[in-house]
Structures are given as structure tokens and as C-alpha cells.
Amino acid sequence: MLFLLTFSLPEKEIEVSWNRYRASWNLRPQDRMPFKLINPGPQIVMEKVLVDPKPLLETQIFWIQQHYKLGIRDDFIPYLIPYPSEGVIVTAFGCEPFFRKGALPTFKPAISKPEEVYNLKEPDLLQD
Question: Residue 73's closest CA among 37, 48, 104?
């Protein structure tokens, strides 16, 4: 699956924002504190994304594009999350996801008593 961005990113502005974040993290003086405004975009249906990550990528690209089209002047650093991050670790240990409408997935416990932790299978990092 290949996606090409159909817009340019403002590299100079992104570099200025990176420098602001770095200065803030290192408690160095700067022109102002970095901030990011939330850009509400289309909602992602998590049940679908867990089966097909394409809508997640398309939505993230849409958010990035919208952010710059709207002319928002904050310290947004564009990024893509290549997988639905909710549950990556817990599902590797055998926790089953379940979904509630309009919410991120929740996970059923893999154990019911603390001593059962010793019976958990070691995750296969290429499969689980």
C-alpha cells in the first residue's frame, strides 16, 4: 500500500516548533511555550481499523492536511501512527478486545488471580 502526500509540509515551521519543544523540555529560554490546538477530524471506527489499517492512515493524512489548510498557527508536528496503538501489548499476552460504541477498545483480563501471571504464554513478537 503506497500513499503519496498531495500537499507540502512547511518544513521551516516544523523545525521552529521542534526547537521550541526541545528548549521547553530542557528548561531553556524561548520565544514562547509550545502548544498544539486540537483539530477535530473524522472519527475512526476502531473495530474496522483493527482489521484494515488503511482507514487509520487515510484519516491521519486528512488531519495533517486539514491542519495546514485551516492555517492553524501552533506547534503541530505532523506524524503518522502506523498501527492502532490501543491494545498492542495486552493482546500479545492474550487479552481479548471488546468494543463499545464511540469508545476505544477495552480488554478482558488474561488472568483472574495474581498467581496465574506465571502461566501467561510468552508473546511471539512476529505473530501476536
Answer: 37
Amino acid at position 36, single letter: K
Distance from C-alpha of 5 to C-alpha of 92, rounded to nearest angstrom:
32
Residue 18 lies in a domain: yes
Clarify whether residues 109 and 62 are in a common domain.
no
Residue 84, all three cell numbers = 492502532
Tens place of pLDDT for every residue, the chain, 128 residues?
555 667 788 999 999 999 999 999 999 999 999 999 876 666 666 667 666 778 878 888 888 888 888 888 899 999 887 666 667 778 888 888 887 776 777 888 888 999 998 988 888 777 65
Supply the range of the domain harboring residue 103: 86-128
- Name the nearest CA neighbour of 121 among 93, 95, 97: 93
